[in-house]
Amino acid sequence: MAQLTGFKQDNIGAFIIKDPASSLDYTLDWTNWMPAGDAIASATVTATNTEGDSTSLAIDSTTTTSYKVTADISGGEGGQIYNVEYTITTNNGLIDSRNFRIKCVERQL
């Protein structure tokens, strides 16, 4: 089972709250899923608005290690909800996908 740090859960699944002005790293870890001797060969991260509109959430960069994918995500529009999907291909040709939602909220003290 994946350990979620900073995420909240609702009846749809995992989500995290992000301020539109923040640029943060979000990492997903495939260690517990990865078959012995295999590793991540490539990864893509995409973001779409849950209403189907084009997104203003930006995937600025992605980095990959043997078992983890990190995306630097910025932007978004307050009040919008985005689906972020991480898709990996392993050295042995396996393909897997995981996703979570980002709810953009103007944060205040």
Could you explain the architecture of this structure?
This protein is mostly beta strands and 109 residues long. It has a single domain, classed as Sandwich (Immunoglobulin-like). The chain is 0% helix and 55% strand. It has no helices and eight strands. The chain has a five-stranded mixed beta sheet with strand order 1-2-8-7-4, with no helix packed on it. It has a three-stranded antiparallel beta sheet with strand order 3-6-5, with no helix packed on it. The N and C termini lie far apart (33 Å). The model has no long low-confidence stretch (mean pLDDT 89).
Write the layout of secondary structure elements.
Layout: E1 8-9, E2 14-18, E3 23-29, E4 40-49, E5 57-64, E6 68-75, E7 81-90, E8 95-104
Parallel strand pairs: 2-8
Antiparallel strand pairs: 1-2, 3-6, 4-7, 5-6, 7-8
Outline of the structure:
The protein has 109 residues and is an all-beta fold. It has no helices and eight strands.
How far apart the termini lie comes to 33 Å
CATH class: Mainly Beta
Oligomer: single chain
Q: What would you call the shape?
A: elongated
- Count of individual beta strands: 8
Strand content: over 45%
- If you average the pLDDT, what whole number results? 89
Q: What name does the CATH topology carry?
A: Immunoglobulin-like
Percentage of residues assigned to helices: under 10%
Q: In CATH, what is the homologous superfamily?
A: Immunoglobulins
If you compute it from the alpha carbons, what radius of gyration comes out, rounded to the nearest whole angstrom? 14 Å
- The SSE string, one letter per element, is EEEEEEEE
Number of helices: 0
Largest sheet: 5 strands, mixed
Structural class: mainly beta
Task: Supply the number of structural domains.
Answer: 1
Write the CATH architecture name.
Sandwich
Uncertain stretches: none
